[in-house]
Amino acid sequence: MSSGSQPNAQDVDGLEAAVDQAIAACDGDMRSTIRALIVANDYLESEVSELMKAVSHAYVRGRFLTYSG
């Protein structure tokens, strides 16, 4: 879903189902749900950061060739 377009009904339904699943996984406790999502987001951000560092080092060391089209 792009930022300039309106979400279609299927996107909204999928998002609502994901919200319901997250709340159900935390036994209906909204604070626990938000806490779990923040922890998961922090973990994913740290993973992305580590992967970006690894890729950058690999390119610097010349392990990967850049694609020039």
UniProtKB/TrEMBL annotation:
Which source organism? Answer: Bradyrhizobium betae
The name this protein goes by in its record: Uncharacterized protein
What domain of life does the UniProt record list for this protein's source? Answer: Bacteria
